[in-house]
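Thread: Modeling a multi-component assembly for a lab meeting

Hi all, long-time lurker, first post. My supervisor asked me to bring a structural picture of a complex we are working on to next week's group meeting, and I have zero experience with this. I have the sequence lines for every component (486 residues in total). Could someone generate the structure of the whole assembly? Inputs are pasted exactly as I received them:
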Amino acid sequence: MRPLALILAFATGCGPQLQTLASQHHYREAVCAAADGSGDDRDFVRRALVGDLNPQLHVEVVRPDQLDRALAGRGDLDRITGRVRFVRVRLETNVLPVDDLDADITFTSNGVVVAAPIEWSTLAAITEEKLPPQETYSTYAHSGTAWRGLAAFFTLGMSLPFTTFRKRSYSADAPLPVYERTAPAAFRLRAAMLDGHGCRHSLARTSGNGLTCTWYAALDPATAGPIQLDLTLAYSAQRVRHRDSWRTQDGCRVTHPIAIQLGEIRTLEARTTRTFGPRMRPLRELTLDR
Amino acid sequence: MKPPVPACVALLCAARAAAADPLGIPSFDLPDPAATPRIEIVESSKSPTYYRLPPKTTHFLSRTAIGTHTRLTGETDTAFSLDVLMGAALRFDRRSSNMLWIEGGYSYVRGREHLAVLGLGGGHRRPGLFTSMFAIVPHVIAGSIDGTSCLGLRTSVIAGFASYSIELAHQVAVIDRIEVHELHAAFTFPFVSGLE
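Re: Modeling a multi-component assembly
Sure thing. I ran the full set together rather than chain by chain. Output:
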């Protein structure tokens, strides 16, 4: 039996059991085990991770009166509400002992992405305003100037008669007051959604990671099919180098896509108000009335 | 949804942060939803280190050795030898420095021997570039010695550091029912590739 046991140990590897890693919250090891393992291993680790992560979600549709307050008379409210529904999604998680944690969302309907990110181009299309063109600036502050300066230094100034310092041009977005003047409604909508910064890592006493996320999305109110919120959680762990190894190693990463059905867009506001109200809801108990 | 363009966000944040409503830009005023307090999950004990080690336990081996081959039976004779071998080192698990050593190839002794070599043995080497190594690898040899077919055994002891190693082997071959004993000494470089 002993030779057979040795052969089996050799064949299957001698690593810790996944159940042990999960029960003792050794999630860095579990993430790497899942990344290197089979589909079943990844499913098991995902369930363990999301169970302890306990993501809490809140979805809220921006009402027309809230939109009107933000626009403050700039832009045609009726035309804007006919083109877009702004949705805010909030996510908060516990802190887990992993090396990195990330989350991202998108809205889909029958597999097609139906939400646009909150960018100047999106807002300008919604408000039918023209964005200011990029402005061209020129400056001496570039690498060519630095090299020519170094050459002058090392040649004690003797290269200066043969050196021409030149400006370089670059394009950048116009200053904000130009946006406010040219596209006032888009400017106000952008400013109203500044807290949609994506994810921030939560403060933690340990070296673990947790998330606080806020996203805004622009949905088309004419979307025909049921809307689905696709949340993707990503857990990362760094590999450990062998003591005398000179090679850096790729890290381990496990992603967990989660789909939450939100129903038809015409009933989205009422249903999210009924489901979430003023509180965030744990992901595990999230069901929406159909 | 990816975050907004950083430059514009930074400028807009600065504009809003200067005062409560510095440019008269109200937000949507969506209230902050109440959430269950966050819990910090900590590991119950010191984390094992296994799966975070590199998963690769099979390493490619390549040995090119030049040295001498000395006949001990009958007329003592020393000749130049060249070995070209390839194989694999199979570490027992991610943490282990012990390995199963498999290699095969061709061995040439100037003027008298052309041998196919196949070996299976054990070795010890810590992963990394500048580490020492030790292996004992018995090889089966088959080919021709002095123009006559033969079969035999070459037992090699290999010791090395970084990319270099020295091999000392005893070879016994049966030629026409006569055992011929030889001593094989070779300097190997590059030692292994891919062992990290």
